[in-house]
Amino acid sequence: MTHPVYSPATADPAELEAHTVGRADLLDTLTTRIAGAARDGARPHTMLIGPRGAGKTHTLRLVVHRSLADPQTAERTLPVLIPEDTLAIGGYLDLLVEIARAIGGDTADAARSMRHDRDAIGIEQAIMSAAAGRMLLLALENLDRVFHRLGRDGQGSLRAWVETSTAITIFATAPALFAGVTSRDFPWYGSFMVETLTDLTVPEVAELLAHRAPALAAFAETSEGAARIADIHTALGGSPRVWQMLADIADIPMLRAVTPAVEAVLDRLAPLHQARLWELPPSEQRLIVELARAGAPRTVSDLAAAVGVSNQAAAAVLGRLGESHWVTSHKDCADRRSSWYDLTDPLLRQVLRFRDR
C-alpha cells in the first residue's frame, strides 16, 4: 500500500516504520519516556509541536507502536488513541465517552449510558476499572482544539481526574503552543514536556524520495540530484507531507527543472489552504493576503494602510490571527515600539502568490 499523505493513522505500523526518515533521537527519547512511565509510575505528559504536515500523527503512532513492542511495557499499558480531528468531543463528558469508546466493549456501552445522567465520575471509574492497574496512555491529537471544546472547566476536570487517578499519561500533539498550556490562568499550565518537530534536512528528504519513489533513488544520489533537491527544499521547506506529495508526482525531468516540481506541489496544496481561508471572516482574509503579497514581515500600520482600516482595527484582527496561529509577531531590536507580523506557515505565502499569478 502507498503510505497515506493525510491519514498516517490508517497505515499499518510496519508501513510507518518503512517510511520513517530522520528524527531518530526524538523517536528514541519518546519511546524510552513511555517505557519508563509504564515501569516506574512516573507520569510525564508530552506534547509534540509542529505545523500541519510536519509528521505529528506519524511520530505519535510510531512511538506508541515502538513502545508497545516491548512486552513489559505492553503488559503495563492500556493505549487509548483518540482519532485525529475527532468531531465527537463537545465537552468533558464527550471526551470521557470517546476514551471509553476507544477501549470498547462494556466500558463503551456503560459510558454512553452514564453520559445521559451526566455522570462523569461514573465514566472515569469505568475507564479506570478497564485499565485494571495499568497505565492509561491517552493519545490526544490537536490538543488545542480539544481544550478549546472542553473549556476552562472541562480542562480542570481532566486535570483533577489525571491527578487523582495517578494512572494517566497524556501524549498529545498541537500545531503550536497555546494559552491552555502556556498561561497561568489555565489548569494545564506548565504540565507538558514540549518536543518540537523540525523540518527534514536535504539528505533526509532525499532518503524519503528514495523510499517513496524508487525510480528517483539513483538520481537523488548524484551530485546533480542533490543540488536540485536542495533548490526545491529552499522553496518548499522540509515538511514530510510536501515531500511525500512530490514523490508521488515527480519524475527526473521535473526535479531537474525545479520550478515545475515546486508548482506541482503548490497546486495540490492550494485547495487545502483555500478551504481554511474561506472559513475566516473577510477582515482576517485581507490581512493574510497582504502578508503573503509582501513577502516579508510588516507592521500594524503598514498592514492597516494596505487594506484601508485603522491601526486599532488591524491590531485587533492581527491579535485574533495570532491566537489562532495564522500569524506570528516579533519586536525589532532597533525599534521596540513596533511589532512585526508574518505568516506562521511559509507555504501559505507560496500558495497564495502562486495563485495570484
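the 2nd protein, sequnce then structure:
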Amino acid sequence: MSAFPVARRWPAQHPERIQLYSLNTPNGVKVSIMLEETGLPYEAHLVDIGKDESHLPEFLALNPNGKIPAIVDPHGPGGKPLGLFESGAILMYLAEKTGKFLPADPARRWETIQWVFFQMASIGPMFGQVGFFHKYAGREYEDKRPLARYVNESKRLLGVLDGRLAGHEWIMGDEYTIADIATLGWVNNLITWYEARELVEYDRFAHVDAWLQRGLARPAVQRGLKIPSR
C-alpha cells in the first residue's frame, strides 16, 4: 500500500485486504454490495464528498476524475497491487476475480455487461439529474424545463427496466448478477433519498418494484447500502 498516496490520507489497518474508498451513494454502494455479496475481505474508508475529500491530491492520485468509489486490491492480476476507479469497471473486475455474479457463458456474459452499461450510461445520470433538480440546488431554478426533461426520461428508463423484468426475477432472468447490483441502489435512492416516487410515477412500474424488494431482502444488499456510512 505504500506505493499508493491514498494510503497516507486513509491509512490501512489491514493492508492485505481490498481497500475501498467510498461513500454510501448510489454509485458507492455498488461496490460495497458486491464486496459483501462475494465475501472478499475488505476495509472501507469514508471519503466525505461533502468536504470535497475526493479532490484531495491523495485521492486524485488514485482517481484523477475525483469521484467515488475507488479500490486498491493488494492482490491484483499477477499478484501485483491494482488501483481501480469507475464503479462499473470495479464490478466487472470483482466478478472476474471471484467468478461470481457474471455468467461464464460468453453470450450471457455480454448481455449482462450491456445492462451494466445501461445503468452507467442512462439510469445513473438521469436519476441523478432528477435528484439535483428535485431535491438539491436545482429545485430553486425558476425554469422547470430541465426537471421535466429528466423526469420524463427517468420514466422512460423505468419503463425499459420494467419491460425487461416482466416475467423475470432478476435482470438476467433467474440469475442475480452485477447488472442487478449496479442498478438496485439507484432505483432505491430515486424513491427514498431523492423523494421522487410520485414525481416519476414509480408505482406504475410493478415489475421494477417487485425486483427492488427482492434485492432489498438480500442481507448483503442491506449491509452494503450502509457502507461506508455517511
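The radius of gyration is 18 Å. The chain has a mean pLDDT of 97.
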